[in-house]
Design brief:
Layout (H helix, E strand, L loop, with lengths): L2 H4 L6 H5 L2 E3 L1 H23 L2 H7 L20 H18 L3 H17 L7 H13 L10 H5 L7 E3 H21 L3 H6 L3 H7 L3 H8 L3 H27 L4 H18 L5 H9 L7 H10 L10 H6 L6 H19 L11 H4 L14 E10 L6 E4 L7 H7 L3 H17 L6 E10 L5 E2 L45 H13 L3 H14 L4 H13 L3 H14 L4 H13 L8 H14 L5 H13 L3 H17 L3 H15 L2
Antiparallel strand pairs: 1-2, 3-4, 3-5, 5-6
Amino acid sequence: MNESSEHAPPQGLLRTLFQPVDIASLVVFRIAFGLLLAQEWWKYLSTGKVQSMWIQPVFLFTYEGFDWVRPWPGDGMYWHFIALIALCLMIALGLFYRAACVLFAIAWAYVWLLDKGQENNHYYLISLLGFLMAFVPAHRAYSLDSLLFPKIRSQFAPTWGLWLIRFQLAVPYVFGGIAKINADWLLTGEPMRKFIHDTRFFFFRKIVEQNDFDLTEAVVYFMSWSGMLLDLFIVPALLYRRTRIFALVVVTLFHMLNSKLFNIGVFPPLMFAATLVFFAPSWPRRLGTWLTFIDERPPQPNELDAGKLPFRITAARKIGLGCFAIFAAIQLLVPLRHFLYPGNVSWTMEGNRFAWRMRLVTAVARGQLHATRPDTQETWELDPLDHLTFKQYSMLFNSPDMIRQFSHYLADELAAQGQPDVQIRATVSKSVNLRRQQLFIDANQDLASTEFSFWPAEWIIPLEVSRTDRIGELDDLQLLFEKSAIEITTLGRLASQLGSPGAAVGQFELAVEKDPTSAKAHAYLGRAHLLTQQFNTAVGPLKKAIRLDPMLAMAYSDLAKLLMTHADPSQRRPQEAQSHALKAVELTDGKDLASLIVLIKAYVANNRGQKAADTIQRAVALAEERGNRSAANQLRRLIIKSTSP
């Protein structure tokens, strides 16, 4: 199929859509899609992402209507990703291709539906491409299927298959460009300015370090405007033969820059590989001819191939094309639904999902959650980090539907503890694209009583701060309300998680000063001192935490650890440590792996080998139940070590 035939005048739309085109570019896309994603899912397994993203969290922010989607128990999530890798390789090899595409699309959709807190536009795109590829016969050539089933062999595919993939790849570009046509992006230069200041990319870092304001501003606006124009016009530029090479160079640089600026995994290389689908369908053959210096024209349709791609339009084909038209209409309408909601979508986030609004907002939100018993009006603050990972917590207060969903979860948890009908309220302030901060959520609204609705949420406070009313250039946010002890404690926990126990000590000391009756603040202060090996200083806060809250398991566990590892051997108290470790396990009902490990060490320190071995078995079972394969394997090695002669 030559270049001119690709653009031949149509003889009716339906007839044109079933004309044969060279299958070569679809084959290349199939192979690249399978191999790139197989490599990506292997990274998820090997780097512990599967554990941290879908196994470790106690609570997941499921999508509305998909509450029934839950992680596999035990090692199920690991096996699920192994299956995903196998399906990707089957797609690349063209082995049972259609079944592999369908299973892949379902299996990957299951993964990202588990938690919208992990939402990413390219997760959604990958599922859509996998689903569409099941219909596109990209396995008719250079595949194991073509060897196993000779009847399907062909060097051609129907035109509609090529354009279906092109359409889906064009949607993110075009709607990404439309979304950038806003005042923040084009007139204020946000959030591109913040991306450039925050990046480690050598080129931008040098500009910022030179403190050349004019040059930095020029780069900010150049990147903003060129990004918008690229998204809007890159697809037609790739389709037009005279601009293809230039467009390819531009889009290659664009995706290379994205990979430097943002941690978005497989998306840049996948989109670069997909870009080649917009070239003439026979480009891989022409490239092969040029590389081997053989003057060989692309294959021409013969009678056999034409017989496999009949031009007769049947009712079934009309129905199939009608279904694809409905699918295309959904893809074109869903990204525009945010126009049905009042206010700035970057603020309200209503209609933001599945709209290809990529990297348009840098939002900083902070909040407090309070529970109130309506009968006594007793009110107390809740700590989200008792239920969420740090990544989930960092996203919580930016998204109204996540705040509402988490409030329902907290109310259910309190009801299970014997406190029914508790009201949950949130005081949240937020800054969008470096505007001054303002209140985000109606603090008088009981969020536990609100239900999901497609209508606008009345408890979202409209954005009143203009884009010109900004905080100092990249300065800290001016807070609308004073930090609570729990918030300060949260900052300390984050510092500890990031490997800065010294900074954590300062935060926890502030928390203790803010609320001397907070057992958790004292406990975390003791833990931070323990991490910095200030053993004598750690004892006081840990014992104070136990006095304030005799049911605080973490304080007992940390005190046990301290009494076993004290730098001064004369200060070690193995028997007392064992007693505290047992208390921690008792208070957590044996469901806390860290407490069990401390108890194992206490038994070993007291030469109680059998007790240690029994507790190791218990910990292994818990680790396997939680899907923590790494911990389970380490504990098994302890068993082998303890039983070896």
